[in-house]
Amino acid sequence: MENKVALITGAAAGIGASCARRLAAMGIAVGVLDLDEARCASTVASIVEAGGRALALGADITDRGQVKEALAKLRSELGPIGLLVNNAGIPGFSSFLEIDDEAWDRMIRINLTGSFIVTQEVLPDMIAAEWGRIINISSMAAQAGAPRMAHYAASKAGMIGMTKALAHELGPNGITVNCIPPRFITGTIMSDQSFAAGKQPLLRDAEIAAGPIQRAGRPEDIAGAVAWLASDEAGFVTGQVIGVNGGRYI
Ligand SMILES: NC(=O)C1=CN([C@@H]2O[C@H](COP(=O)(O)OP(=O)(O)OC[C@H]3O[C@@H](n4cnc5c(N)ncnc54)[C@H](O)[C@@H]3O)[C@@H](O)[C@H]2O)C=CC1
Ligand SMILES: Cc1ncc2c(c1O)C(=O)OC2
């Protein structure tokens, strides 16, 4: 993995930051992309401190021009991109009849269209190298549902469909495409803010107590699965939706 370059979106914090640190520890040079470059500083610093290579990239994944600019910078400083983790996303909590057109469009635009744009812009490098890894961070809300999250669940279910279609299309090019749909990962802004604001529609503590594994997930749990999917050992795994969720959705 020493000569490989990965792009991780939404990597300023939470799951994305953990994935970036984990891939960097495998010797992969990482592009740490988030809404603005300054927000990426702490992730980049922690990677550099640990002896890894990382570059901060500011871009809104819904803006193709900004994505193109960020990727040009990543390619010129670190090289062609071999791995992509589509992790950037936003949550949303509204009863179905209260989701207006604007909230619906924004959700689909960021979580689904943003992942589409980044994947399209990264892909030529992987096709040229005849090797690639695409890992999409969806949500268990896409599989099991969650009240007041129809727009979010729909956007994340879209990522599962895109994963499966792309796996077919890109298998002949040596590129694998897989999906991890988490639930209840603690210590991230997204999950902690939603609980603090009382917006959480499910009884998190009750679900966790019901097991099978009776603890909340951690960003590192997701990063460990991402690291395996990124590795050469996982080259025969594609089009899969891999639950890293304590067994809560089987
Ligand atoms: N925390 C959890 O329990 C769960 C999280 N997820 C998914 O995991 C992913 C990461 O979430 P967390 O680390 O928990 O949240 P987080 O809010 O800490 O991280 C998301 C990152 O994405 C960035 N981002 C948002 N919109 C962006 C855009 N348009 N362009 C570029 N960057 C953008 C944010 O600035 C933020 O740094 C999300 O896609 C989320 O939907 C899924 C299921 C459960
Ligand atoms: C039930 C539930 N609550 C909060 C969140 C999610 C979820 O599925 C999610 O995927 O990201 C934040």
UniProtKB/TrEMBL annotation:
Top-tier EC class: oxidoreductase
Keyword terms: Oxidoreductase
Annotated Ketoreductase domain residues: 4-183
InterPro entries: KR_dom (IPR057326), NAD(P)-bd_dom_sf (IPR036291), Sc_DH/Rdtase_CS (IPR020904), SDR (IPR050259), SDR_fam (IPR002347)
Keyword Electron transport included in the entry's annotation: no
Listed EC numbers: 1.1.1.-
Stored Pfam families: adh_short
GO molecular function: oxidoreductase activity
Record-linked SUPFAM superfamilies: NAD(P)-binding Rossmann-fold domains
PROSITE patterns with a match to the protein in the record: ADH_SHORT, PROKAR_LIPOPROTEIN
KW Glycoprotein (keyword) present: no
Family affiliation: Belongs to the short-chain dehydrogenases/reductases (SDR) family.
PANTHER family documented for this protein: 3-OXOACYL-(ACYL-CARRIER-PROTEIN) REDUCTASE, 3-OXOACYL-[ACYL-CARRIER-PROTEIN] REDUCTASE FABG
Name assigned to this protein: SDR family NAD(P)-dependent oxidoreductase
Biological source species: Novosphingobium rhizovicinum
Lineage: Bacteria, Pseudomonadati, Pseudomonadota, Alphaproteobacteria, Sphingomonadales
